[in-house]
Amino acid sequence: MSLFPRQFRFWTTLLTVVSMTALTFTPAVAGLTASRVSGTTSIVSERDADMLLAQRALEIKVVAQKLRDYGVTPEAAQARLASMSDADLHTLASASKGLPSGGDATGAIIGVLVVVILVIVVLRLMHRDVVLR
Is 6 inside any structural domain? Predict the structure, then answer.
């Protein structure tokens, strides 16, 4: 007993052969695209890069609120940044690299929960009991 009737096998084979010979398979071609300017900033020197980092740090809501709490206006902070020496500006920019880029800790909490759940699943798969006291 055959799975397919003889006529069905013939037409299936014929369709497969025709489709395989009729389709042309060309290799994929990749190349570089022309670059374009992605923003309006033009960083020419190290001071410009440090100034940009410090300005972005001042735009963080927590930092801006703390400055307002101390009585510093955003305009005064920008004026102070412009008058800083290169060494002081570099120190401030280096310190601001560690600041969070925004958002809350939801992603970190979810990440910790996923790791805890994975550990519990692995322990259960190893037939170990998980006891919380």
Answer: no
